[in-house]
TrEMBL record:
Belongs to the NAPRTase family. Pathway: Cofactor biosynthesis; NAD(+) biosynthesis; nicotinamide D-ribonucleotide from 5-phospho-alpha-D-ribose 1-diphosphate and nicotinamide: step 1/1. Residues 2-98 form the Nicotinate/nicotinamide phosphoribosyltransferase domain. It is an enzyme of class 2 (transferase). SUPFAM superfamilies: Nicotinate/Quinolinate PRTase C-terminal domain-like. One of its GO terms (molecular function) is nicotinamide phosphoribosyltransferase activity. Keywords: Pyridine nucleotide biosynthesis. The keyword Glycoprotein does not apply. GO terms for biological process: NAD+ biosynthetic process. It comes from Anguilla anguilla. Its EC number is 2.4.2.12. This is Nicotinamide phosphoribosyltransferase.
Amino acid sequence: MKQHRWSIENIAFGSGGALLQKLTRDLLNCSFKCSYVVTNGLGVNVFKDPVADPNKRSKKGRLSLHKTPSGEFVTLEEGKGDLEEYGADLLHTVFLNGKIVKTYTFDDVRDNAKLKDGELVELLQ
């Protein structure tokens, strides 16, 4: 590289993560996208609705997350949170207008991300 005067910034090496394990957001049916924006005081729903694959339709509007009495989580679209049927919205504002309004330690994140015994095994089968 030095002889040909190539910059190291132009070289990339990789092996692909699937060589180690095949855990992807698709396996867990999980992805994070923008669903609502406010521009000049006007709120607008943001979503995708592909004609070729209706299963890839995203949730739109202000979202809320609730835990059912049976312990399952449900996401409600378009700001319909805090309904008596579901209880309080579990989502919290972390960033607001470019400022951090709630902080978490790395241990907090780890605790919140823990799966119950056997959950990952079930997903991999």
